[in-house]
Amino acid sequence: MSLRVCVYCASSNQVAPIYFEAVDQLAIHLVNHHVTVIYGGGGIGLMGRLADSVLSRGGRIIGIMPEFMRTVEWAHKGINEFRFVDDMHERKKAFLDGTDALIALPGGCGTLEELLEAITLKRLGLFTKPILIVNTNRFYDPLIAMLERCIDENFMAPVHRRMWTVIDHPSQAIEAIQQAPVWDVEAIKFATLT
Which residue among 40, 106, 133, 183 has the highest number of C-beta atoms inside a 10 angstrom radius? Predict the structure, then answer.
């Protein structure tokens, strides 16, 4: 059975070419490993490029999008399967249901919010799968520094570093998923520092 991996990424068409290149590299890597990709369903920006790249290589991709976004025609027209949900909260839940791993590419506030919610759920033991942060062009350096500061100043424990894995290149994704530390549903027992 192939892996099901959710990819968080942006809908902006205005970002630098290096980010589009990273999307193509990730698509090639995931398709070559027979991964089913789950994403936000968009047809523009990095999201649209992800879908186009996966499809052009014969891969499988599933889009999950709130109904209100379909009405403004943000939905990709050619993906294998679409799930339309009521709102953003249901969308984020659907991203995690049955997913074997999460991969966060660079993105805006939506991507950051989805990533941090997933980390929070993992801290509570409500999500236990690998979370990968693809640090293309050192995009995530400030966020990684902020997470480290949370640990340094005892808002989180050192063990919480095990909740995410930072990779520099999309081609490291499958190996990082396979080598990710096991995370326990009992994580809530050490979620709070006392």
Answer: 40
